[in-house]
């Protein structure tokens, strides 16, 4: 890892606050709406954080990068069509959110913040994910201990167990990156706390019975498996640890929770895992149009969300927008994998963009991940794409950092 200075410490603190405050939205749902005061607090903290990033960059917004071209092109086309869809459907909310994605995201999350993080970007993002989201998990266990839960699912401080699983999976992505990075040094025992945190995340996801989160956790962990194939002795130890933590999750759960865990794992293999979502998806596909029906489509037709990022884009913004979103997803996987393959030998945390991209899109199979701001995983994904973009434009990045280093923070 490169030298960690005062600016990097400030970035960790700021991003941790950003991840934590943006995830306040997960404390409410349609059945238990979040307090408007909490929503206002969320936007206030996020706004202050974004202004802080701009101030650190001295409000230098020049040099917006357009490479890799496929990433930039698919994102621009997706957001442009979404704006047109909002106008066509007379949907001011859609227009507002799409303009944010079109203008603010490339400027702030694809460009300015990754430049500020510089060569420590992947480490800063992963550490901030853990620091920003872990309070939700630990407060859940403190205020609602597992031993006092009589239900077959555990939701902690969240109104729905899926939101607990989602938050834990997002936190686990950061922990997993830190774990993989710590494996680079043969005599480094720092991987042990990260390994325990990774296993702890798995246990919480299991007791929350959050199936999509479990699938995302497993998908992200396959990247760890790729690294462990190079170190067979560690692979055996981690497999034994996995068996142990699954056993502990079953032992620490109540009888109903244990039955629920086993049932949910079984359900992943069959149609019941969709929980009726296939009906929403099927009707949305049957109803699809070029420019969609606006943000109220799912609420008016089903009384709940679309439970899939691409399906939501299809119903709300239309077929063209969904097509470009899929293109952006494919380009994301390609470039994050290429980044991992190219820089893995020289950068311990080069797996970061690939891990977060994998977690983001697998979580997106069961939840809507885009919006006016999104949540911690959405922001982490945008920042990871920004890392790829900044790396592909080294000359612009060097000019920015040469200027910013002239005025170091004390």
SSE diagram, text form:
Blueprint: H1 6-22, H2 36-56, H3 69-88, H4 92-117, H5 121-143, H6 161-182, H7 191-208, H8 211-228, H9 232-252, H10 255-267, H11 277-287, H12 297-302, H13 309-316, H14 319-343, H15 352-363, H16 376-391, H17 394-404
Helix pairs in contact: 1-2, 1-5, 1-16, 2-4, 3-4, 3-14, 4-16, 5-6, 5-16, 6-7, 6-8, 6-15, 7-9, 8-15, 13-14, 14-15, 15-16
Protein model, in words:
This protein has 410 residues and is mainly α. The protein has one domain (8-399). The chain is 70% helix and 0% strand. Helix 3 packs antiparallel against helix 4 (92-117), helix 4 crosses helix 16 (376-391) and helix 6 packs parallel to helix 8.
Distance between the termini: 21 Å
- Strand segment count: 0
Report the sheet with the most strands, covering strand number, pairing sense and barrel closure. Answer: none
Structural class: mainly alpha
Share in β-strands: under 5%
Helix residue percentage? over 70%
H/E element string? HHHHHHHHHHHHHHHHH
Please compute the radius of gyration using only Cα atoms.
21 Å
Q: How many helix segments?
A: 17
Mean pLDDT: 85
Q: What is the domain tally? A: 1
- Unreliable spans are 406-410
Write down the overall geometry.
Answer: globular
């Amino acid at each position: 890892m490169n030298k960690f200075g005062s600016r990097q410490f400030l970035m960790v603190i700021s991003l941790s606050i950003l991840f934590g405050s943006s995830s306040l939205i997960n404390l409410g749902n349609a059945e238990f709406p979040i307090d408007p005061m909490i929503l206002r607090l969320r936007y206030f903290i996020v706004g202050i954080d974004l202004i802080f990033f701009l101030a650190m960059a001295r409000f230098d917004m020049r040099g917006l990068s357009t490479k890799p071209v496929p990433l930039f092109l698919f994102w621009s086309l997706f957001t442009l069509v979404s704006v047109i869809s909002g106008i066509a459907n007379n949907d001011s909310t859609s227009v507002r959110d799409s303009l944010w994605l079109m203008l603010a995201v490339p400027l702030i999350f694809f460009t300015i913040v990754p430049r500020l993080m510089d060569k420590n970007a992947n480490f800063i993002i992963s550490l901030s994910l853990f620091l920003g989201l872990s309070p939700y998990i630990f407060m859940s266990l403190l205020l609602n201990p597992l031993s006092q839960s009589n239900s077959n699912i555990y939701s902690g401080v969240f109104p729905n167990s899926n939101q607990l699983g989602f938050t834990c999976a997002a936190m686990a992505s950061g922990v997993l990156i830190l774990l993989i990075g710590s494996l680079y040094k043969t005599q480094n025992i720092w991987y042990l706390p990260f390994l325990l945190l990774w296993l702890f995340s798995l246990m919480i996801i299991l007791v929350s019975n959050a199936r999509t989160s479990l699938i995302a956790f497993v998908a992200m962990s396959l990247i760890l498996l790729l690294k462990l194939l190079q170190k067979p002795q560690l692979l055996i130890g981690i497999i034994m640890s996995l068996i142990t933590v699954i056993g502990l999750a079953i032992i620490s759960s109540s009888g109903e929770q244990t039955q629920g865990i086993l049932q949910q794992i079984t359900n992943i293999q069959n149609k019941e895992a969709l929980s009726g979502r296939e009906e929403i998806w099927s009707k949305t596909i049957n109803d699809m149009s070029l420019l969609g029906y606006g943000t109220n489509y799912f609420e008016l037709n089903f009384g709940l969300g679309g439970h899939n990022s691409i399906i939501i884009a299809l119903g709300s913004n239309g077929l063209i927008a969904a097509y470009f979103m899929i293109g952006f997803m494919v380009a994301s996987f390609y470039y994050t994998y290429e980044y991992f393959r190219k820089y893995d030998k020289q950068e311990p945390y080069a797996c970061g963009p690939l891990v977060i991209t994998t977690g983001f899109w697998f979580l997106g199979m069961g939840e809507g991940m885009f919006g006016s701001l999104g949540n911690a995983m959405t922001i982490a994904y945008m920042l990871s794409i920004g890392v790829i973009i900044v790396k592909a434009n080294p000359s612009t990045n060097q000019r920015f950092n040469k200027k910013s280093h002239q005025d170091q923070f004390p």
